[in-house]
Amino acid sequence: xxxxLKIGLSLGLPAVMIALTACxxxxxxxxxxxxxxxAKAPEVKxxxxxxxxxxxxxxxxxxxxxxxxxxxxxxxYITFKYIPPDKGNSLPELVARGETPDLIRTDVPNLKNNYLxxxxxxxxxxYVKKFNVDLSRFNxxxxxxxxxxxxxxxxxxxxYPPYFPMVLTYNKNLFDKFGVAYPKDGMTFDEVYELAKxxxxxxxxxxxxxxxxxxxxxxxxxxxxxxxxxxxxDGLYDPEKWKPLFANFLRFYELPNNKIAPTRxxxxxxxxxxxxxxxxxxxxxxxxxxxxxxEWDIVSYPTLPGxxxxxxxxxxxxxxxxxxxxxxxDAFQVIMEMVSDDVQLADSKKGMLPIVTKAAIRDxxxxxxxxxxxxxxxxxxxxxxxxxxxxxRKPGTANVPTVVQQDSMAQTFHDxxxxxxxxxxxxxxxxxxLKAELAKDKSK
Length: 444
Hints:
12 strands; 32% helix; 12% strand; globular
């Protein structure tokens, strides 16, 4: 039976009701009272406005397909101008040109560098209170991580689907070819390592790798909740805790016929899709499709020694409101429509992992995706609790954008796995880089 996530309550958004007093009409001195007219809510006419929407990393086509129809129906007075993340349209460039959008798609890794450092932060807590929004309908870590990442106690964004759990994807064609049993849910990294040994080989002059991984995601979203930047001190978080993690992952790349790809991009994005890699650990994401020629499936993320048996994950993107917007209240109401139960149910059916706790929405996942009906979708919900996210820097302290932290850590591992440096040297150099980045932030 599919296991259920136990975090939070399953509550919908409360409707905001407007009480109207009906005016009774009296007869001009006559003895009989006239029948009162049925009370009708007056139609509130709003002046037309335009809201510009910046979709960091997402094309206009997705916005149109997921949101536009529902938004135009709900807000007929609003014209939505979508600004795609084309060349020349980065958020800093838009701000510099005086074309700052009203609504901004951001995420935790880019919150500092691509929102707060541009002085665009708007605390949404006041609007949450004004419109009686029940934040407990969202999976709790997604709300709290955004608050912690902002370092002020403000809520700088509302999460929206999908989020990205870690999974192990495997190539069924290769396991069938070599007569090896498929991976299964609940495996340990030691068990995956034994499979990788069997699947790393040459055959008919061709090399087959047993294992590849999105190392950046595995390190950043590790099951222990280790942060990269120490939340309380300037520098790398406890190197002695990172060393066993490095050792666990490095052993896979020390296997014969399983050398890491020359670049991080190749290791993450392209090698599995070539069809000669048996397994890859990555975030589950519809944004990284696998070619139809590969018969693939997924199982739960392997467990690490001593780590909690919880879901390792990367949170969703967020909709935020620009500090410069002249229509903040309208923008917030638009956000809440984009994360309404109706919209999320439609998203879930199309294969977008929902970010609310309501079981009916989660259980609808992939119902309209024929390509997912034969997949082990229950592995996405195999763990019953969320692994802890990495603790963030304290209020008022210098910080390094998460995107810089994660890229620096991933490059360090790649350099070690490629034989350019040893683990101790790599972690020492990473510590120095983080301290240099903190010095830059302090000098602003």
